[in-house]
User: What shape does this take?
Amino acid sequence: MTNHGRWGMIFLTCLVSIIAKPNYSKGNCQRVSLQQDTSESIIGKYNSPKQDFNKFTSEHLVLKSDSTFEYAMNAEFEKIQAKGCWHVSGSNLILNSTKKKEKIIVQEASNKANASQMKFEVTYKDNSSLYYQLYLITRKDTIYYKDVFHDTTINHNETLKAFYIVDSRGFRYPTYFVKDKKSNNFKIKLESDRIFDNEKWRISADRLQPVGINGNYASYYLIKEIR
Assistant: This one.
């Protein structure tokens, strides 16, 4: 292959890469789906079905023609809203929040005087306290601590590999992998808003199977409004 041909191939590869990766950092939504028929037909409002066992919770997603979305979930004591960009990839709907925020921020420290103790101080980013479930992952197993409030000290001799937190609303935060095996003090800040980060919802005809706040696929579908 000539040098001209090789440079042409490199340019084409770079161009495809740029097109295939939308940039949401400045809030501009780009349609990147190659399934144009699916992208057009999927536009609309999707609502959660009425559930006798859960009468106080409703959920909806609005997909707009400019590749933006509006999401809302209303529970008895909680209201969650989010906005962002969407595109279609295969049989999945990909959702990204316009304003990306870290879901969890951790500061590690080592307290040699209490090497056998692990201290966790957990708040939301606005410094408000919360009840949460704490899951510690060691080399041997996962240890569960229920109904922890704000901070806690744990006597444990096993080396901590990672941990994750589920707050009282059911939000499951990403697993955090400990950077320094000597760390035993963890100051943790949690994002209280729901952040969509390349979240994949399943497309099934005029229905969408959402990912719940626990990080798993829901047992129900959001159904498209027929006008």
